[in-house]
Amino acid sequence: MTDVTTTPNSVTELQLVKVARELAMDIHPLETILKTHGITPTAWESLQNNTRFQRILSSEIEAWASAANTAERVRLKSLSFVEEALPEFYARAHDAKEALSAKVEVLKTVARFAGVGVAATEAGFVGERFSVTINMGQGPDAPQLRIDKAVTATVPPMLEGEAV
Asked: How far, in Å, CA of 28 to CA of 80, rounded?
């Protein structure tokens, strides 16, 4: 493999990171990922030998596979699975040959996925929280300082820009 350090002009740094992340996640086929991000077959050929892209991909694979990321992997793969099943759910709910009880179960399931008719905690969409308790002494009457905040973003924002 040749040591290529230049990136095809048609591929931005943000595209490199996004493609690497999706490849690391291994949820969608390569063709789908490349099409989604507008990567041509020629650009892909060049990227495969690009050392910068290889480092980004290696980093994304390591981050995705880390033990600390297990819950996020399961959540994203589950959501992908659900999304792929929705067309079949739709077809079966509208199929006159399906039993009414099966249609009702499909509708209940899809409604639960969408959070319709259930509290967010019942639907399984509980936000993450950050909590710190500092004990200011000993004993049951000792004062405590408690910080409890909801975490609104699970993924840090992507930084965009050009190297100067």
From this structure: 9
